[in-house]
């Protein structure tokens, strides 16, 4: 039972991460290759608060806000650089986060932070993570239909045209980064308390790419597709134990195959098969 | 003296980066693709070079074999991965490229083991030269020599040969070049061939430099290569060369002064981010 609970929790955390990135890259069209950094920021901020004796809820909130605050900074940076430049800058943000955390003694350097207090049991974390994932999915679906979602879409399609018709491009870009990175911060906070141990390497470039893989394999821009992608990529190594040894080989090959044959991911595949476009 | 030595070491690293980044710039300049998978070509070159060197004992043969293997793999990646998705948005090719890199890196690990292999005999690694009180080993000298010779050869190729002229024409205006009878497809293959051969040779040199060839050796240098071509202003060859040397030197000094704050990779990317915030089109990039 414990095993299923922890798999379910990890699947839910991945859904949160992937939906967050989908807000930035799917809805608003800003490619980000450094999403794991915000996951890490949330985890470290929440862990520090809990170790200092603050209540769980405060720690989670601190994680969310820390990630969100840095998200705003990157959002502002995203106003200066576009497309390929932005992709490399966000990749750089990931390496910068990792490289700085690794050298900080007060963050435990390479050893990370251990013995983080754990206020909930396994069921508690599973319910919290799944609840948060569902809430974020509902928020995503709502945003997509709202005025904000349409504005995001306009920015993604053609920034200059959006600006011409009076859309506050800068504001919406920053909003997308803020929302997406807050989600990552929440996932980080839950992760830190659940595992009670965080090390820098958990939040490396491969993690960023894994989150991106979930978004892209699910179908960038489609919330339901992204949820499916995140759940699928979490369960795959669990269902097929033998994959575990070749996890990256399979991830890489899947990324390549999806880009090559169905760039719209699972969502695009479903649409072509049934004519229904997953929201 | 110490600072001069840091400068020298930084420049040697800069030459390594230049060999890697020039290929990335060529690919980007022609196809607007961030060719992360070049790391795979680099690592393949290193492994092939190492295996040939350890079996035959000849480094010259190792370089030839590495250049050949890399020269086959690069155009193959273009044909199988990039060509079918050229009309898609740019991030599609980038993600596909990352997919190739991750999968192949794991492939190298499964084939050759996770810990890496060393050269059976690496005479260049152990013999050192003193220049004005500073010590360099022979691999480092070869690294600089290889960068200077290969990059000059490329400059000559681009400036003087028919193929070079066709290449330049295609970069600046593919449609116009095609209507003047340039075989654009051939130019693309040549482009990947040059980029890959440079990467393969750089792979063997870095393998010799560390006396270690491991599955992940290409990825960080490839990520930094991307940082360099962005720094230089995407698609600008002179910008790339300047950025390579500057980044090598910045890292070299940075690891000394910022050792307590961040690691080498973080320094490189911090520098990139700061430069881009001031000059969003890179050091030598044209205005938008």
Polypeptide structure, described:
Chain A has 279 residues and is an all-alpha fold. Helix content of chain A is 76%, strand content 0%. In chain A, helix 2 (35-51) packs parallel to helix 4 and helix 3 (56-80) runs antiparallel to helix 8. Chain A is globular. Chain B has a domain at 19-217. Chain B is built from twelve helices and two strands. In chain B, a hairpin with a 2-residue loop joins strand 1 (128-131) and strand 2 (134-137). In chain B, helix 2 packs parallel to helix 4 (90-112) and helix 2 crosses helix 9. Chains A and B meet through helix 4, helix 9 and helix 11 of A and helix 4, helix 10 and helix 12 of B.
What are the SSEs and their pairings?
The complex is a heterodimer of chains A (279) and B (288).
Chain A (H helix, E strand, L loop, with lengths): L1 H26 L7 H17 L4 H25 L2 H21 L18 H24 L1 H11 L1 H6 L4 H27 L9 H14 L4 H17 L7 H15 L3 H10 L5
Chain B lengths: L1 H30 L6 H19 L2 H24 L7 H23 L10 H4 L1 E4 L2 E4 H23 L1 H11 L1 H6 L4 H27 L6 H15 L5 H21 L6 H15 L10
Antiparallel strand pairs in B: 1-2
Helix pairs in contact in B: 1-6, 1-9, 1-10, 1-11, 2-3, 2-4, 2-9, 2-10, 3-9, 6-7, 6-9, 7-9, 10-11, 10-12, 11-12
